[in-house]
Amino acid sequence: MARTDTGLIFDAEAHAMRKRDRELIPTRLVVAMFSLAVLVTILVAIAVLTDRPLEGTPPAAAVVKTHELTLTGNGNAMHVVDGEGAVIFDGHNGGFISVVNDGLEYARHKARIETNPPVIITEYADGRIELFDPASGWKSQLSSFGAGNLNVWRALLAQSQ
Fold this sequence. Notes:
Order of helices and strands: HHEEEHEEEH
Number of strands: 6
Strand order of the largest sheet: 3-2-1-4-5-6
Largest sheet: 6 strands, antiparallel
């Protein structure tokens, strides 16, 4: 005897799937995301047009010492030379130094700088360390990446006279 397929189970599943597919990303969520993007764009435009001062900048501090270093890297391998030509680091695993060098190389690539001019590293009285590349204008607050990474730069700069 053949079974009669009423289609009730199939129809119920199809209806549930159609409803699920229609509300996979709720319309209210999409509207909220685009509203947030438009709101942020308006706030940024107002801040730029009114010349609002920057909020996230570090406070002014006295310069303790500046260093002129040339960073050369190939992957994780790093070669660091100070202003007098003395090699202060040469290793196969540069760690955080190679990460900063990657950012520096990217900034120089964007600025179309083909050479490898030295960078200026400044130590401030409040403990901050800043890397500045005069060639590209790129600046990085090295103290923003945690105490461990800051100590790596301090140890590197201690070798530079």
